[in-house]
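Here comes just one.
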Amino acid sequence: MDIKIFDHKPAKTAFTLLAGALGTCISLSAQGEPSIFPTGTIRYDPAKAYNSFVLFTGGDKIARLIDLNGNPVHQWRNESSLITLIDPALTGGEPGHVLLTLATEEGSGSDLVPGRVGRRVSKTIGEQDWEGRTVWQFGEKAPGGRAQQHHDWARLPNGNTLVLANLVHPVPGFAQPNVLDDVVYEVNPEGETVWTWQASDHIGEFGFTPEELKLVKESKNADYLHLNNLKVVGPNRWYDAGDRRFHPDNLLIDSRNANFIAIIDKQSGQVVWTLGPHYPAIGESGINASRKTPRPVDQISGQHDAHIIPAGLPGAGNLLVFDNQGEGGYPPAALTVTGGSRILEIDPVRKEIVWQYTAEDSGRPGWSFRSAHISNARRLPNGNTFIDEGEVGRFFQVTPASEIVWEYINPYPSRNKDLQTGREIVNYQVYRAQPVPYEWVPAGTPHAENAVIPPDPSQFHLPAVK
């Protein structure tokens, strides 16, 4: 058991937060951010934010549950970047259970990760309770004796667990002798696989033209699709109205490398709905077209965390996705030089954008909100949207009118040596963060809700050392 409890502290401003950060004088790797910046909570309006916990894994491989003042209230040792706190409705009412990676191993060559050296793959994943006891695990009974889980998983109402995993094998017609294929396993509580879906069996169902499919098969990247998302569709108004493509048991996936989102029929395994891989260019119909809603979905690229907004939340039934605007597509999508990432809420039947968030919506230049890979976004019960700008480890909440009402910078970086220069590389990125309702963890778990008022950056200067 590894628990950290905090003392409640008075409200802080970003002045005091930055003063604390200066004690370590942390510098970033060569990116576009400042080398010195405050970490922890740098903005917080408790009256406008959805007050909750947030769960994420830092670069030190510690998964922390924090309150919105940035205080860690609980932690788990985690061997990968993904951790998910499970809705107690799916754990028999037991709060505070998580899915996480228990063990990894290094893979290279054609065995684990074709064409890659020094990459780690998951060997065992599991469920742990609040006290850190492992109550379920998967790996030993997986194909090849390794879970090889990546990017996502999901607990089902029947007690089984969906696992997004990799499978290394030859696929006829592909240039690569072995591909890093994407598979979905449904695993029962005994760790046995009871259902399997394999992406390469459905390559003709994702909407590629013959020319695009040729590019896919000739790709020099064995990870030809790179699925980064697996979600259960869940109850929704489309199915209630008779649209069986949105059956609650169906599964939603998205491909970063191929720029599509798809729904898999759970019974047949067939792809029954897609978004992409073809889109009109952003702003194609006019200079202001990229800001108007509703409008037809325009160029998505390198997206993450696509999911149907759950029933009971504002926007329920719509698709929410972090549109990275990162490299992707066969052929690669044309991306703007100075554009940023976007959060898109999409009517999945009309395939229209009905709400979006960009940096411009908060009065900033578009490129100031940008994460070309990783990242996620979630709708909150009060209508706000939680966003993880993964590359810089920044979490924030925006209102429906795009006002930022909570903001946090990850203070737990990874530290690695550059193999060429020997210099330390400090990386603040966070793959995914999860807002966690207070009631999903044991009663009495402490939390603070103290306002944090940021300064005006244009008037915020550091004194010179005398």
Observations:
- The longest helix spans residues 14-21.
- The mean pLDDT is 91.
